[in-house]
Specification:
By secondary structure, this protein is α+β, with helices and mostly antiparallel strands. The chain is built from 4 helices and 15 strands. The chain is globular. The structure holds magnesium ion (2 copies).
């Protein structure tokens, strides 16, 4: 079921989204060669708790970290641990925060030190793909319009579109209806209505679109070990467009 949020619920989601955006802004200063992903996770938890919220992903479906940290060929759901960031890596922080029962969810890919041109281009294009997807959102648009916009842009730029993972509705659950795929056909899928809140999150690969799961049962990596980038905002559908709730 796709829910329309009340003004009160939207207020809480704005606050949750603000905390997520602030957590990104806080953590990006720490993204440097030598820091472990566990330390980033600890800083995230501390910041979210100090903001009066709780980390949405901690124990979600049994996830062992507070945020997901995915490096280079890791697409999503990387588990924080003892691995250190290295110069030339790209790293995605996927952060969720729950404030008074409502969630915000935003992923962003960052450069560690000096990265090569290919990775820089992948990051730039994936961020642009997110905004292409968002640009078609308004009351009366279809979920398929979002996927079609992202897929068309990605293919034009010869990037692989991950199909196994999608964006989603969001509210008092992190993952609500509808699924918001990063591929699709214009004019198809559920109709968007003002007051819906959804997370749009293209995951684009430099090479193959194929992905698989590591033995840890969490981390998803690209089939050819080429890098992947991931940008996500939680947004509110409005009459004539959208409002980003996870502003940064
Ligand atoms: Mg996310
Ligand atoms: Mg999400």
């Amino acid at each position: 079921m796709i829910t329309i949020k009340s003004p009160r619920e939207i207020e809480l989601m704005e606050k949750a989204g603000e905390i997520v955006g602030n957590t990104h802004n806080y953590l990006k200063e720490y993204i440097k060669p030598g820091i472990t992903t566990k330390e980033l996770d600890r800083l995230a938890e501390e910041f979210i708790l100090n903001s009066g919220a709780t980390p949405s992903f901690k124990n979600l479906y049994g996830f062992p970290g507070c945020i997901c940290i995915s490096i280079n060929e890791e697409v999503v759901h990387g588990i924080p641990g003892n691995r250190k960031l290295e110069n030339g890596d790209i790293v995605t922080l996927d952060i969720g925060a729950c404030y008074k029962g409502y969630h915000g969810d935003s992923a962003w890919t960052y450069a560690v030190g000096q990265i090569n041109e290919e990775k820089a281009k992948l990051m730039e294009l994936t961020e642009e793909a997110l905004f292409k997807g968002l640009s078609v959102i308004k009351d009366g648009a279809r979920v398929g319009d979002i996927g079609a916009a992202i897929e068309e842009f990605a293919h034009k730029n010869h990037l692989g579109v991950v199909k196994e993972l999608t964006g989603h509705g969001i509210g008092c659950e992190v993952h609500e209806d509808p699924d918001v795929p990063n591929y699709g056909k214009k004019g198809t899928g559920p109709i968007l209505k003002a007051g819906m809140t959804i997370a749009v999150e293209p995951m684009l690969n430099l090479g193959t679109a194929n992905v698989f799961m590591l033995d840890d049962d969490w981390t998803i990596i690209t089939g050819d070990n080429l890098p992947s980038a991931h940008y996500e905002h939680t947004v509110l559908v409005t009459n004539d467009g959208y409002t980003i709730l996870t502003k940064r």
